[in-house]
């Protein structure tokens, strides 16, 4: 018998945090628009085995910057360490872990609903409380756009379920801080 100790490496998308201490955190990362800069940030998220819920990358307010909005589910201490690691990445200008009280968060969903079980007007009426906008209509389906927080998107999807949802495309959340601290 051997006295060698065995170590296990957690699988990707599995946290090292104690069970039940995880919550969803929104990270806003501003990075310079240079070759490989976004890849390096995503690489840190991957290497740290973050339980990534969503990732949105788009040009920022300044033309030479990109804004990355990442939602990760993990314990506060693990996310704090992740933020510290991201801050060390070359070309990263700012990283903020914003709470739901500090963040203005929105998501876009494009929902294609079957018209076989209902007429288009009924589907459109169902979408009105959610501010749904019709972006395409064919004899087979109505395609609507819904914008809001994750709860509003989930409610809209549940409401359209009765007709039959053909397809859904979601952007994932994008966020700004209320105090504009992440300019």
Describe what you observe in this structure.
With 183 residues, this protein is α+β, with helices and mostly antiparallel strands. It has two domains: 23-98, ACT domain (Alpha-Beta Plaits, 2-Layer Sandwich), CATH 3.30.70; 104-176, Alpha-Beta Plaits. It contains four helices and nine strands, in the order βαββαββαββαββ. The strands form two sheets. Strands 5, 6, 7, 8 and 9 form a five-stranded antiparallel sheet that branches. A four-stranded antiparallel sheet has the order 2-3-1-4, covered by helices on one side. β6 and β7 form a beta hairpin. The protein starts with 22 loop residues before the first strand and ends in a 6-residue tail after the last strand. Residues 1-13 have low confidence and may be disordered.
